[in-house]
Specification:
heterodimer; A: 347 residues; alpha/beta; Rossmann fold; 2 domains; four-stranded antiparallel beta sheet; 11 helices; 12 strands; 25% strand; B: 381 residues; alpha+beta; MetI-like fold; three-stranded antiparallel beta sheet
C-alpha cells in the first residue's frame, strides 16, 4: 500500500480536486394513471449547491435529516443523475472532467478514483460474500490484481483498517457494526481513490465504536493524504475531523466556512440553532438553548423568500419575500442571510 | 503504517468473530436453521422417499400396474399377518388366501379371508417382467409372493379390472410428482426472465408485463385450463400430451413468481451493496448475477416449493375431470377419475387412496416450503 498510495500530484491544499457548480437534483413526484405517470411536482432535494474541495482536505456537510446532504453526496458520485449543474473532478488519468456529463461506462473509469463509505454497515456489504470477495471486488473488476496478489493486497488492506487478515474467509455476519464499517473502509481504499464520499459513516454505530472508526478515518486521511466529502448530522464529529464545513438546509447551502471560523463566528441563524441543539457533554456548561420551532420545510413546496424564515427567530418581512444569496460575509466565510452582519449569533 | 495498524488491531477486541472460531458459510447457516424445523425435515424425508419410489416404480411395485385379472376384481386391502396357515408365529410376513363368495340376494361378489391358506411375502423376488427405465429387462421386485404361488398380494386392494392399487399408485406418482417439478422449472425460467426484465428496466416494459400478469391472473383458472387442454390435439400421443399439460400449467403458473422476482429486483436495486458493487466497477450483468440473484434465490426456491402442490393439484383436477391425462396413462388424477362414481364410494372405497397420496404430497411440500422460507434468510436481524 505504502508505495502505491502515494500519487504523483502535489499535496498542497490550494489544488482544487472537486468543484461542484450549481448542482441540482430534483426528483419528480408522479401521479399514477392507468398507463402513464404524470409529473405533478418536483422534490428539490438539492437545489443550486456549489462548493469545492481542495486536495487532501476534509469538507463536512451537515444538516438535519432530509436536508439533501446524502443526495448531494450520491449525486457527486453519480449514483443519481443530477438534474443540472457541473461536477468538475480532477481525475488522475483523464484530467478535469465534468462528472455530470459522463455516461455510465465512462463513470466506471472515474470510480477508480472516487469511492464511497456507506452509512449502514449492514446493508452495504453483500451478506453472501466473504471479506476477501468484498474487499477484493474492485481490484478484480478493474482487472488490477488477481490470484495470490489479490489475497496479499486484501490482507494488507484489512490490516490497515485494524482487522486481522485471517478474517478474510469469513462472512460479514460474523462481525460487529464497527468491524463491518472497517470492512467498508477497506473496500473504499482498495483502489487508492483520490476522493472518498463518507456518507454518515459513524451514525449507525455505537458511540464507543464511533470514536475508533473516526480516528481510523482521520489516521488514514493523514497517512494517504485522502480527500473526504464527509456527510454527517453530528456536529461534534464534524468538528473533530473536518477542515471546512458546509451547512445545508432544504437543499441549499446556508453557510460554509473553515471549521474554526464556523464554530466561533456563526453567520447564519440556522447554524446557531443547529449548534445549540447539539448536546454538550459538560452538564454545567448550560448555554441558552435556541430551540428550533416547526418542521423542516417541505422540499417539494419550499416557503417563499429565505427557506428558513418560518423557523427563524430573527425573521423580518424582508426574509419572507427576498431569497438571500450565499455571499462572502467575512473572508472565506460564506453565508446566506440578509442580516449576517447585524446579528450577533452564538451557540 | 506498521504502528498504525498495530494500534488499530489493539482497539477492537470485542469481536463476534472471536467467539465462534470456525467460519459458517451462508449455506451452512441455512441448513442449521432448516434442521430446527422438524416438520419440514420430516416432510423432506417423506418427499425424498416418494420421489425415490417413483423413480424405481417398476422395482418397488409388486405387480405390473396394467396386469388385469378377472378373478380378483375389487379385492379389499389385505392385511399383513405374521401367523401362518398352521396358526404358528412366523417371522416372515404373509397374506392370507381369499375365498370368493356371491351374495345370494344381491348377487354381489365378495371376498373373505381364508385363514387356512397363508402366502409368505418374499423380498427381492422374481415377478412380472418389466423394462427398467426402458433400458434393460428385469423381473426383480422389492417384495411380492413367490412366482409359483397361486395367491395374490393386494395391500391396498384391487380395482375393477383386478389391477393392484399399490403398483398403480406408485406408477401414478411418476407422472404426478414429476409434472410438478417440470412445470415449476418452466415457470421459474419464465418468471425470472420476465420478472427480471420488468423489475430491472422498469418503465414501459414493466407496465406491459405487469398488465399481462394481471390479465392472466384475473381469468378463472379452471375454465382456462379446460379450454387450453381441450385445444390440445386429441390425436397426440400420451407423452406429448403430458408435456402439453406441463406447458399449460407453467404458462399460467409463472405470474406469481414473476411478481416476486420483480419486487425483489425493485427493492435490491436501491440496496447499498448493489450501489457499492457498481462503484466497485461491476457491470450490469455482474451486478445481477453476482449480487442480486444470489440474495433472492433462496426465497425463490422456497416459494417454488410452495407452488409445486398447486401444480400437482391442477394436474389431478384436470385428469379427474377427464381433461388432462387419460387411460392408459397412470397418474393420481387418472386413478381418482376411476373412483368418481357412487359404486366406488359405497363398495370399494379403497380406490380413493390415491387421493391420500395427493394430500400427503401437497402437505409435505407446503411444510417443506415453510421450512425453506424460514431458513432462507439466516441473516434476519
Amino acid at each position: 500500500m505504502s508505495s502505491a498510495a502515494v500519487k504523483p500530484e502535489t499535496k498542497t491544499k490550494t489544488d482544487t480536486l472537486l468543484e461542484v457548480q450549481n448542482l441540482k437534483m430534483h426528483f419528480p413526484i408522479y401521479n399514477q394513471g392507468i398507463f402513464r405517470k404524470r409529473v405533478v411536482n418536483h422534490v428539490k432535494a438539492v437545489d443550486d449547491v456549489s462548493f469545492d474541495i481542495k486536495r487532501a482536505e476534509v469538507l463536512g456537510l451537515v444538516g438535519e435529516s432530509g436536508c439533501g446532504k446524502t443526495t448531494t453526496g450520491r449525486a457527486v458520485i453519480r449514483a443519481y443523475d443530477p438534474t443540472a449543474g457541473k461536477i468538475l473532478f480532477k481525475d488522475t488519468d483523464k484530467g478535469q472532467v465534468d462528472l455530470a456529463q459522463l455516461s455510465r461506462e465512462e463513470m466506471r473509469d472515474v470510480w477508480k478514483n472516487i469511492q464511497m463509505i456507506f452509512q449502514d454497515p449492514y446493508s452495504s456489504l453483500n451478506p453472501r460474500m466473504t471479506l476477501e470477495q468484498i474487499v477484493g471486488e474492485p481490484l478484480k473488476n478493474y482487472g488490477i490484481l488477481d490470484g495470490s496478489a489479490l489475497r496479499d493486497r486484501v490482507a494488507e488492506l484489512l490490516r490497515l483498517v485494524g482487522l486481522r487478515p485471517e478474517y478474510m474467509s469469513r462472512y460479514p455476519h460474523a462481525f460487529s457494526g464497527g468491524q463491518r464499517q472497517r470492512i467498508g473502509i477497506a473496500r473504499a481504499l482498495s483502489l487508492n481513490p483520490q476522493l472518498i464520499v463518507c456518507d454518515e459513516p459513524v451514525s449507525a454505530l455505537d458511540v464507543s465504536v464511533q470514536a475508533q472508526v473516526l480516528n481510523l478515518l482521520k489516521d488514514l486521511q493523514g497517512q494517504f493524504q485522502l480527500t473526504y466529502l464527509f456527510i454527517s448530522h453530528d456536529l461534534s464529529v464534524v468538528r473533530h475531523l473536518c477542515d471546512r464545513v458546509a451547512v445545508m438546509y432544504v437543499g441549499k447551502i446556508v453557510e460554509i466556512a473553515s471549521t474554526d471560523d464556523l464554530f466561533n463566528n456563526i453567520q447564519h441563524p440556522y447554524t446557531e440553532a443547529l449548534l445549540s441543539s447539539a448536546p454538550k457533554p459538560d452538564p454545567r456548561a448550560r448555554t441558552k438553548h435556541v430551540a428550533l420551532q416547526g418542521e423542516v420545510a417541505d422540499a417539494a413546496n419550499p416557503p417563499s423568500g429565505c427557506y428558513f424564515h418560518p423557523r427563524c427567530r430573527y425573521a423580518t418581512d424582508k426574509c419572507k419575500s427576498d431569497t438571500p444569496a450565499l455571499r462572502e460575509v467575512t473572508p472565506n466565510h460564506w453565508a446566506s442571510c440578509h442580516y449576517a452582519e447585524e446579528l450577533d449569533l452564538s451557540a | 503504517m506498521a504502528d498504525l495498524s498495530a494500534k488499530n488491531l489493539a482497539i477492537e477486541e470485542e469481536t463476534i468473530a472471536e467467539k465462534g472460531a470456525s467460519i459458517a458459510t451462508p449455506r451452512q447457516l441455512m441448513w442449521w436453521k432448516f434442521k430446527k424445523h422438524h416438520v419440514a425435515m420430516v416432510s423432506a424425508i417423506i418427499l425424498i422417499l416418494f420421489y425415490v419410489v417413483a423413480l424405481f416404480s417398476d422395482f418397488v411395485g409388486p405387480y405390473n400396474p396394467e396386469k388385469t385379472n378377472a378373478k380378483t376384481k375389487f379385492v379389499p386391502p389385505q392385511a399383513i399377518s405374521f401367523i401362518n396357515g398352521e396358526g404358528k408365529f412366523s417371522l416372515r410376513p404373509g397374506v392370507y388366501g381369499l375365498i370368493e363368495e356371491r351374495d345370494p340376494e344381491t348377487l354381489r361378489r365378495t371376498f373373505h379371508v381364508d385363514k387356512s391358506v397363508w402366502h409368505p411375502i418374499y423380498f427381492i423376488v422374481r415377478g412380472d417382467p418389466y423394462k427398467m427405465w426402458g433400458l434393460w429387462e428385469s423381473d426383480i421386485h422389492l417384495f411380492g409372493l413367490d412366482k409359483e404361488s397361486d395367491g395374490v398380494i393386494f395391500l391396498l386392494g384391487s380395482d375393477r379390472l383386478g389391477r393392484d392399487m399399490v403398483s398403480r399408485i406408485i406408477h401414478g406418482g411418476k407422472i404426478s410428482l414429476s409434472i410438478g417439478l417440470l412445470s415449476v422449472f418452466l415457470s421459474l425460467i419464465l418468471g425470472i426472465v420476465l420478472g427480471g426484465l420488468s423489475g430491472y428496466y422498469g418503465g414501459m416494459v414493466d407496465n406491459i408485463i405487469q398488465r399481462i400478469i394481471e390479465f392472466i391472473r384475473s381469468i378463472p383458472s379452471l375454465p382456462l385450463w379446460m379450454a387450453l387442454s381441450a385445444a390440445l390435439p386429441p390425436g397426440w400421443p400420451q407423452t406429448l400430451r403430458y408435456f402439453g399439460i406441463t406447458l399449460i400449467l407453467s404458462i399460467l403458473g409463472w405470474t406469481g413468481l414473476g411478481r416476486q422476482v420483480r419486487g425483489r429486483f425493485l427493492s435490491l436495486r436501491n440496496e447499498d451493496f448493489v450501489l457499492a458493487a457498481r462503484l466497485s466497477g461491476a457491470r450490469d450483468f455482474r451486478v445481477i448475477i453476482q449480487h442480486m440473484v444470489p440474495s433472492f434465490m433462496s426465497h425463490i426456491i422456497a416459494s417454488l416449493t410452495l407452488s409445486i402442490p398447486g401444480i400437482i393439484l391442477a394436474e389431478t383436477s384436470l385428469s379427474f375431470l377427464g381433461l388432462g391425462l387419460r387411460q392408459p396413462v397412470i397418474s393420481w388424477g387418472v386413478l381418482l377419475q376411476e373412483a368418481q362414481n357412487i359404486r366406488t364410494v359405497a363398495l370399494a372405497p379403497w380406490l380413493m387412496i390415491p387421493g391420500l397420496a395427493v394430500v400427503i404430497t401437497v402437505l409435505a411440500f407446503n411444510f417443506l416450503g415453510d421450512g425453506l422460507r424460514d431458513a432462507a434468510d439466516p441473516f434476519g436481524r
